[in-house]
């Protein structure tokens, strides 16, 4: 069971257990979200549908913060959904297969012969992350161009320079490159743009009014910005949506997302045969789907992360239950919120989270500052401060604020991490996933 782990680029694969009930304690779920908002632990929006009917939807926090001017989010606020986009792309690929314009065995070489192993890589392998194509967003150079518009030619030139990570089909590794290319292939086959095909093949077809291919965030169109929290919410830089494309460029509301996945499982978008292709797991990867176990139930869906937004979309076929959650401000883990919401929905034991941080002065943090390393973990962690907030940053990763919980203990609830410092020995113990690592300050 995974309730405290955060996966930024990979899907979250486990939640809590429960049993299905058609009625649930909605005020208790309200209280959970109000508590998160009151303690500035999360901002976002959630929707739950039972047999295609919305039974709960609520937004909390703000879609935009501009100094003292704060715009409250509502259930129609749109958020960047990141890799949930891949499910939409896969649906359109399967629609083209059903129209006889493509097959699962078609090779990438038909469209992009210049790419590594193009003659060996099939559409099926791209859909299930078995292609071996290198994940372009994992390269350090990606940060240098992520905010700038890129054409198909420019992106494929980047992909062509990247060596394959492994031979196609021998294993699976998550790669956004697969779905950017699948988005381009949709355009090549149809002669229309991805946004046009998305509208024609999915959103108009099933009546989604708050789902579309994103551009620069437009707050006047009720689109949310994303925020990090360091002594308050600060806006996160935006990726230009020409870059993630079919891998992560869609903007949507949670309500539209549950309608989408309901329609998918109801056979309104692709055949049941192709839905089974999406659901079939190999090396824990389906075709734009992953499994989300909930006790004896099996859910299917995807999670997403882009520019500080985190999202989850899950469908439980046995109960015809769907849930979508999108956050644009995260301190408390999004998978924890979905797990808590499902526990409330299924009337399972549930403890309301408590947030009891300790207030420290800037000078109190000085004894913790420095660069730390561990013989058991191949990275260093830099401990710095921003006014009265301690900041932790691991090698090659973003910086995150650490909350003081007393007795030299600090936590990052977002990732289920806790640090306990020993200022005499100039070290700290790092706790995560039941594992403990000793870090010592460099001299």
Automatic annotation (TrEMBL):
Which residue ranges does the record assign to the Beta-lactamase-related domain?
Answer: 45-329
- Name used for this protein in its record: Beta-lactamase family protein
């Amino acid at each position: 069971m995974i309730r405290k782990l955060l996966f930024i680029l990979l899907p979250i694969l486990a939640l809590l257990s429960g049993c299905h009930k058609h009625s649930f304690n909605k005020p208790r779920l309200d209280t959970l979200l109000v508590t998160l908002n009151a303690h500035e632990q999360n901002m976002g929006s959630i929707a739950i549908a039972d047999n295609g009917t919305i039974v709960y939807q609520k937004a909390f926090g703000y879609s935009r913060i501009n100094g003292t001017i704060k715009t409250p989010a509502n259930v129609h606020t749109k958020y960047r959904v990141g890799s949930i986009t891949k499910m939409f792309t896969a649906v359109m690929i399967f629609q083209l297969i059903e129209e006889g314009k493509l097959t699962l065995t078609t090779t990438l070489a038909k469209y992009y012969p210049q790419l590594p192993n193009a003659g060996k890589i099939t559409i099926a392998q791209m859909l299930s992350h078995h292609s071996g194509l290198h994940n372009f967003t994992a390269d350090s150079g990606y940060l240098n161009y992520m905010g700038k518009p890129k054409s198909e030619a420019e992106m494929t030139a980047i992909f062509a320079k990247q060596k394959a990570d492994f031979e196609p089909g021998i294993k699976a590794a998550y790669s956004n490159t697969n779905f950017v290319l699948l988005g381009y292939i949709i355009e090549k086959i149809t002669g229309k743009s991805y946004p046009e095909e998305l509208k024609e093949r999915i959103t108009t077809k099933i009546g989604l009014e708050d789902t579309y291919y994103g551009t620069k965030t437009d707050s006047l169109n009720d689109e949310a910005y994303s925020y990090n929290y360091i002594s308050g919410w600060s806006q996160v830089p935006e990726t230009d949506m020409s870059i993630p494309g079919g891998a992560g460029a869609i903007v949507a509301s949670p309500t539209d997302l549950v309608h989408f996945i309901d329609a998918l499982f109801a056979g309104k978008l692709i055949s049941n045969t192709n839905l089974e292709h999406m659901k079939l797991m190999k090396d824990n990867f389906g075709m734009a789907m992953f499994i989300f176990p909930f006790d004896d139930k099996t859910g299917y869906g995807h999670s997403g992360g882009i520019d500080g937004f985190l999202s989850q979309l899950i469908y439980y076929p046995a109960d015809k239950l769907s849930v979508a959650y999108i956050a644009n401000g995260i301190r408390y883990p999004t998978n924890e919120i979905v797990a808590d919401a499902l526990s409330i929905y299924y009337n399972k034991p549930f403890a309301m989270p408590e947030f009891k941080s300790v207030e420290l002065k800037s000078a109190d943090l000085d004894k913790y500052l420095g660069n730390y390393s561990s013989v058991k973990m191949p990275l260093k962690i830099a401990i710095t401060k921003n006014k009265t907030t301690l900041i932790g940053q691991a090698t090659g990763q973003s910086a995150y604020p650490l909350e003081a919980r007393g007795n030299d203990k600090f936590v990052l609830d977002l990732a289920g991490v806790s640090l306990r410092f020993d200022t005499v020995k100039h070290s700290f113990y790092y706790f995560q996933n039941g594992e403990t690592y000793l870090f010592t300050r460099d001299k």
